[in-house]
């Protein structure tokens, strides 16, 4: 009888980690849904050569950007060019649309492949911070002040950008205004390499 009266041992409750609340996604869960996109289809006419291959602190610009995005994203693509060592996708709906074509390609790729946001940058910003996604996080899209190609975009904006381009939109700032993108100041400011002399500072 005593054996029957013995109570089953209680299973200890799983303790929650400090700072985490039920219903909130962990950093890892957020990262798994973030696609990094290097928008690199421009002609770089002011630079005089392919600035993706220009070197800063002994490393190509595109490699600086790729490393910074890869540190905070679970996927990474280069938009608008073939680049060895990277997964590459073509601009949408066609070449020659500037950064909008690359961003549109990234948004569609993200939507099809299960990412819920795109963290984008041009190939000419070698000092992207490793916490860029965190700095831009919030409701809806966000861009870095004065550098609209550096942004965090919900993949659900793909149809909106399709319509914007179809209706003749070609300015990235025009699209950011149409979707009420937040503008975030980054300190220290990001580099914007347009000429070889910009790499000397």
Explain what this protein looks like in three dimensions:
The protein has 201 residues and is α/β, with parallel strands linked by helices. Helices cover 27% and strands 19% of the residues. The protein is built from 7 helices and 9 strands. It has helices at 2-5, 27-31, 61-70, 99-112, 132-136, 158-166, 172-178; strands at 34-39, 55-56, 59-60, 75-79, 87-89, 117-122, 142-144, 147-154, 182-184. It has a 7-stranded mixed sheet, with helices on both faces. Helix 4 (99-112) runs antiparallel to helix 6 (158-166). It is globular. It starts with a helix and ends in a 17-residue tail after the last strand. Residues 1-26 have low confidence and may be disordered.
Topology:
Blueprint: H1 2-5, H2 27-31, E1 34-39, E2 55-56, E3 59-60, H3 61-70, E4 75-79, E5 87-89, H4 99-112, E6 117-122, H5 132-136, E7 142-144, E8 147-154, H6 158-166, H7 172-178, E9 182-184
Parallel strand pairs: 1-4, 1-6, 4-5, 7-9
Antiparallel strand pairs: 2-3, 6-8, 7-8
Helix pairs in contact: 4-6
